[in-house]
């Protein structure tokens, strides 16, 4: 995440973790001068994993890189660091998270989940929201605690205390909860990992009949959280992972129009790729016409060989969203694998860029909320979620963070330039975006191992 020594403070463990410098395979570009971090599962607000399109959002929303929520126009760096929709996280963190979660599961889920009594409708029993004097504890991406993302709840339940804890990558959400590091009512992970939460027995199903704004939630997004006929995940934010092209610098002046074009020899040393193995394996599979993520051993070897062949074209691997912004605005690279907000920032800086919709389709992330089954405040938690998916909340997400948001009614009310930039008014935008799929533990392990081996050879 940022440059040489950006430190991410883990508020639960009271420790600091230093993130690695971007891995560069040609001349090292100068250090970024702008602050910020971003949802791999990462996201645009926290500094990890996500993406945009042709016209950038309002300038005041793009230029701010402050993580403070005091300023209503600030763009806390998510994805995630990231969609993530991640956002996503580095392959090394993912391997460590898998090991930690496996140990916790073998130990009987160290979180001490015992379960809350169920009401006659099968959902957790609790006091009605209006009579619940308790606090809601939320595991969140930093930046989303602003009341503009739950406006009606903030007004109706102004006396309710919201206690926030934070994670900086999607796997951290599950790790914190499953190991007992976070005991919360709600969490905000990415959709492709929800099945892991359900398998671990951590979640309560969401009674969508109590959500007045559910009728406006995009149904394709909603189905991402439907398991065995029950909704365990409430989609909220989403974004793209695609190619940002500097048309003034790219050889030929146009750049790639498909994922397969990245292997063009004329792009030697021109590409900055996120240090994210799952994303690289996904677009390589698409370029080869292979059925990601269900790859046979033979197909996975094809992907490995193809990614190895991409090495000469890779100039650097970035891990913090500001790295890519700096590299493209300075002209150090002409092609970047990036998210909505990075594209918006690069364009707003005056760099002539396009945001490619590859012939094989754009990739994307989706993140949202889950309810922990041990909550004693189920009805109150649903009031918070209903406010989060309101039109007003999603308009703020679109305008201020250049995100897609699950409430379709927000699109006509949002800033038209941002809507056009993200193509949110396209009726097929969700159907034509390849959102991150849930991976089995075996797939995740093999993909991370492949990326570790391949990326180690880049720059050689």
Automatic annotation (TrEMBL):
Residues 20-82 are annotated as: Disordered. GO terms for molecular function: polyamine binding. Coiled coil: none annotated. Its main location: periplasm. The keyword Phosphoprotein does not apply. The chain crosses the membrane at residues 92-113. Residues 43-53 have a biased composition (Polar residues). Gene3D superfamilies: Periplasmic binding protein-like II. This is Extracellular solute-binding protein.
